[in-house]
Amino acid sequence: MVSAGPRTIVVFSDIACPWAHICIHRLHTTRARLGLAGRVSFEPHAFPLEIINEEPTPKRTLEAEIPVAGGLEPEAGWQIWGRATYEWPTSMLPALEAVQAARAQGTGAAEALDRALRIAFFRDSRVVAMRHEILDIAAGCDGVDTAKLKEALDDGRARRAVIEDKAASDEAAVEGSPHLFLPDGTDVHNPGIELHWVGEHGAGFPVVDKDDPSIYEELLERAASH
To answer: For 199-222, what is each residue's pLDDT tens digit?
Structure first.
């Protein structure tokens, strides 16, 4: 059972999930538009797809998803991978660990680093599997103590938190990335978006059947009232 604290939205997701990139962008922009910054917090938890699916970050699948996801929310920041293929980050575990390490510094630090890592990957083609890239990205995030983050990455303490998040997602029947849990006890997978795949993942492409961004106003207002 996942329990969200007062005025907190718990988000289970993977850093390399385009639908989660949309979700995090909409959470932040809607919170700002509604004037709820400082009243509602986002608590990021890992949904490590490479552990769940037992495969590396799937480049071909993401290249099919990104043009579709980017069309729904262009301002989130997107591009097809802009570096050499051999630089593609096959693992998101270091980035997921960094977010959990930042969460030990406070929810604000975790929020900031979680969003910055997604933008760095999807918009800027940064290799977020690399320690020096993560630390450089973290240095631009308000509230993140990079010295403490470096210590946490180097001694590996946050790996346990990622594994525990995976176990918690199993218990809570998390449907996929992203999956949100609200303080009123409700939860929702991939808010506002319904889609299906034509063909197999990595060979076919996603088709969006419905997209209703207005659901984020409801989610933020519900969280703010509890």
So the answer is: 987 789 999 999 999 999 999 999
